[in-house]
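Morning. Coffee machine broken again, so started the prediction first thing and wrote up yesterday's gels while waiting. Chain of 280 residues, entered below exactly as on the submission form.
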Amino acid sequence: MTVPFIKYHALGNDYIVVNPSDMDTRLTEKSIRRICHRHYGVGSDGILFGPATETSDVLSVRIFNPDGSEAEKSGNGLRIFSRYLYEKGLVGENWFQIQTSGGFVRSQILDQGRQVAIEMGTVSFDSAKIPIGGPAREVLNEQLTVGDETLSFCAATIGNPHCVILQDETSAERARRLGPAIEIHPLFPNRTNVQFLQVIDRGSIRIEIWERGAGYTLASGSSSCAAAAVAHKLGLCNQSITVNMPGGSMNIELSPSYAVSMTGPVTRVCSGNMDREMFK
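Came back before lunch.
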């Protein structure tokens, strides 16, 4: 038996969608690692496993990282999953809900799925919600030591944890060098996603991303939301922000309560069938 899949990317952040009804065995950490492997599998930044049921009023998805761990939320992943639902005829062009382990989001299909808008929820800087070690507080403009460097950072959550490092300039080299240590820093009991943030002007920022469980990533929706929220919280940007990443740009809108909406592209790459031989 083969397992059908569809592969999409959102600004170079690629995911494989697998419907649970197409599998006769459960996904394991080992099988997730194999599917996502760039040489021994199909290759992707993660797996979107859903919908859990096609009869529920609220469709759900589980999001797996290439290291086999499960993510609470993924902005790019949710845009991709929204397009998948639209192409399967399970949703139309009106707003609909998707359930994740990091909470509900609302989604709307634009331009026949080539663009998708997502209401991601509300960003919080509360240390208990992120979570992050230390006393109860909003985690803003604190210091973090990694190796021989002391970095200024803010932390936030939008259903998954983020550490935003303020930089005069960003670079892929810096994200690759510092990201792994920050991801597993003892301050973050559930590990963390890491964004290296450079403010360009009141309406635009640039970020480099080290994603928890995935590594260096060309783009990230939840990272864009967290970085934009931090930039606005610190008074450096307005409520409407263009987030520039190596894979491209997306638009973020923040409400006064830090509810976040994002709009960005989705591209269908291919569809196919995974052969059982791949898992042996």
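DSSP finds four helices and 19 strands in the chain. Going to sketch it on the whiteboard this afternoon.
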